[in-house]
TrEMBL record:
Protein name: LacI family transcriptional regulator
Organism annotation: Enterococcus cecorum DSM 20682 = ATCC 43198
Keywords: DNA-binding, Transcription, Transcription regulation
SUPFAM superfamilies from the UniProt entry: lambda repressor-like DNA-binding domains, Periplasmic binding protein-like I
Domain of life: Bacteria
InterPro entries for the chain: HTH_LacI, LacI/GalR-like_sensor, Lambda_DNA-bd_dom_sf, Peripla_BP_I
Amino acid sequence: MSITVKDVAKRAGVATSTVSRVINNHPSISEETKKRVRAIMDDMGYIPNLTARNLGKQVSNAIGIILPPLDSKERLGNPFYLETIETINEEARQSGMTVAIATALNFDSLLENVKQMHRQKQVDGFILTYSDNHDPIIRYLMDEEVPFTLIGQPYNHEQKITYVDNDNQLLGKQATEYLINHHHQKILFVTNTTQENVYFERYFGYQKAMMLANLEVKPAVTFQHPEDYVNFEELLKIEKPTALVVIDDLFAMRIIQLLNLYKYQVPDDLSIISFNNSIFATLVHPYLTSIDVDVAELGKMATQSLIHKLNDNQQTSGRMVVPHKLIKRETVIDFEQK
């Protein structure tokens, strides 16, 4: 014989509507009542019918994770997104929710995927895992008043969006200062993306550190086309840098491979510092000096914020900043001690 809501209500001495509100975590029910009713549910072995519950509420009890267009091998294999998915999935699971992933090769297809997920009520809200200045997704979500949170800093409408981020400008500044404190003066900033806000913020931080140290600020070295990899060797001969700030660990590994091809050794010829402290940082020697952005905390806070929005049925806004930490390893040496 299966246990029903009526059975739980009778044992708890409350109305069936109260039990339903406890199941839906409704804010009108006190925490004391919720704990008591949930304890009785556990004792009786009652399992809520989530399908019926969701149909009645017209919700899916699911969160949509929106990944950026996976238009390159670097993005496709970037552990940042894999770690973010894992964290969001675990945090959602603890709240009795599932996740669905929206991805595509370009923004047009990605937007269609998101529209379909929203219109078919496959998810109740979204978490964007990136911030891109050509992104049409945020505009759609805002126009349709779809609950969402953003991992990263938005390009505009900051006052209307809930987002969680590191202080990426400070990250860029501190990474560059670490090189400067090791007596490097000719420092280049290297990136394979120029559209995402994380690039602008980290490059601004590099510029600030260089200017404060009265050192020459160089344009960012960008890898957007195949010929950029070929031209990099000539650029190194012209600029003669002693250190590089690279946009993230995965691309830093690619740069180290490229430098080896050009007969440069890291860190003997060039010191390198990067960001994210991903699994790639310790895959091969030399181990990468990297800034840990606490991916797990980024995903956790973004998920908790979205669930809070969904439970309260309110469109809130605000910024949450996750602390970072410099992890010193083997790719930076003191230039004066070479």
